[in-house]
Amino acid sequence: MYKSIIRPLLFNFDPEGVHHFSFKSIKLMKQLGLTRLVKPVFNIEHKALEREVFGLKFKNPVGLAAGFDKDAKLYQELSDFGFGFIEIGTLTPKPQPGNPKKRLFRLKEDKAIINRMGFNNGGVAAAVSRLKKNKNVLIGGNIGKNKVTSNEEAFNDYKICFEALYDYVDYFVVNVSSPNTPNLRALQDKEPLTKLLAGLQELNKTISQKPILLKIAPDLTDEQLNDIIEIVQDTKIAGVIATNTTISRDGLQSSNKEEIGGLSGSPLRDRSTEVIRFLHQKSQGAFPIIGVGGIHSPQDALEKLEAGASLIQLYTGFIYEGPSLIKRINEEIIKQS
Q1: In this structure, what CATH number is given to the domain that contains residue 142?
Q2: Is 72 annotated as a binding residue?
Q3: Mean pLDDT across the chain
Q4: How far is the C-alpha of 171 from the C-alpha of 167, rounded, in Å?
Q5: Is 7 annotated as a binding residue?
Q6: How confident is the model at residue 127 (pLDDT cuts 50, 70, 90)?
Q7: What tens digit of pLDDT does each residue of 170-188 get?
Q8: Which residues bind substrate per the record (predicted)?
């Protein structure tokens, strides 16, 4: 029903407007008591789905990637669709509007999305107020810096978010790979990245120690990926999320393919899997990897798990394929077990 009726209807309207409409609709469903009908349809519990990764227990390996529920407004309701975990953010210390609209574009022929949102969010304090109401949803906190903060001062922004979220998330993700904040990707260079992650790890040790992951771009060279492996091992962070959106436009068919921003969806599938395989093989499986990028089918998910991912995340595939994709992936994992 989603792909035959709901999606064609929603795809007639502006994608960012549809996103906000969907949030309001799901909230209304909850108020009317209808969301209790969702959980039995989409949730599957099975021993073969359970995972223990970086010290956390996941009921299944399929998560929602950051960017969908930036401000932690819908994590409880979204978990009812069968996700094993929800990643909120990217959050910054201060609220910011993000880049000017229009900044979100569908590429229907390519089953893709281009976004140049620019870390639009209501600030970390507002998200924390909502996370205090969490009822047993495993949450990842994706953190970044404000646009006006220079790279030289970036650590302070990550520190503010880290400390504010510490009691309310289960793991952290350091986002230095979005292409939509000027100069942010320069923080992926070896020296500044090592300094940033080492600083957060030192802070982590003074509290109690929660898993810190690094989210990387798919556009890194093999040499840069080797640096990432070395940095992860030197700083002893918990793992890597591979990958964020790409600035590549290879092989696209859609008319708005030249829009500036990060590309997600099917065209990213193979490169994301290549990065996962490279990291896993070159590190000899030294750290867990969360695989994300172009997962639109159970087979896409299995490819990432077989390449070395311990967990996977959906975003664009969730939009194009609907919530049944989560269930179909989990059913296939059970079948393969």
Answers
A1: 3.20.20.70
A2: no
A3: 96
A4: 10
A5: no
A6: very high
A7: 999 999 999 989 899 999 9
A8: 70, 115-119, 175, 180, 244-245
